[in-house]
Design brief:
By secondary structure, the protein is mostly beta strands. It has one helix and eight strands. It has one domain: GOLD domain (Jelly Rolls, Sandwich). The strands form two sheets. It has a four-stranded antiparallel β-sheet, with no helix packed on it. The protein has a four-stranded antiparallel β-sheet with strand order 2-7-4-5, with no helix packed on it. The termini are far apart.
Length: about 140
């Protein structure tokens, strides 16, 4: 088949297509949009760090202790205390906590009303040195 004939065949095939396809519609939902926040820093031996976040609509908050690495980037498997609470002065008044090793799954879940909350990470066992960490919070 020659090139002009092939182009003509393709053109005819395209003209045979109609515009009668239905446009998909999105289902209506009352679910709120979720916000994902990543907090990272350095935790000193026997130290703690906290970060605040704001929940705009009531719903479920999940916290994940995502990673723990040495200063050289080596992965550490030590467990830290992960907690959710309400900011109090220069700290976080933890209301719910869990000892957790880094994992890519939610390790702490809490129902929350609209308001300001905090996530706290603490070294209660004594790390061998200061380490880099990351925490992921998903909230409405």
């Amino acid at each position: 088949m020659t090139r002009p004939a092939l182009l003509l065949l393709c053109a005819l095939a395209c003209f045979g297509c109609g515009d009668d396809l239905e446009t998909p519609t999105s289902a209506s939902t009352t679910e709120s949009t979720l916000t994902t926040r990543l907090f990272s820093g350095v935790i000193p031996v026997k130290g703690a760090r906290f970060y605040s976040y704001t929940v705009t609509t009531p719903g479920t908050v999940t916290a994940m202790f995502a990673s723990l690495t040495t200063g050289t980037g080596a992965i550490a498997r030590s467990a830290l205390e992960l907690g959710i609470g309400i900011p109090a002065g220069t700290g976080c008044a933890v209301r719910q906590m869990v000892n957790a090793a880094p994992a890519l799954v939610p390790q702490l879940t809490q129902e929350a009303a609209a308001g300001t909350y905090c996530v706290n990470v603490a070294d209660t066992e004594g790390l061998p040195a200061s380490m880099n960490f990351a925490i992921r919070i998903v909230h409405p």
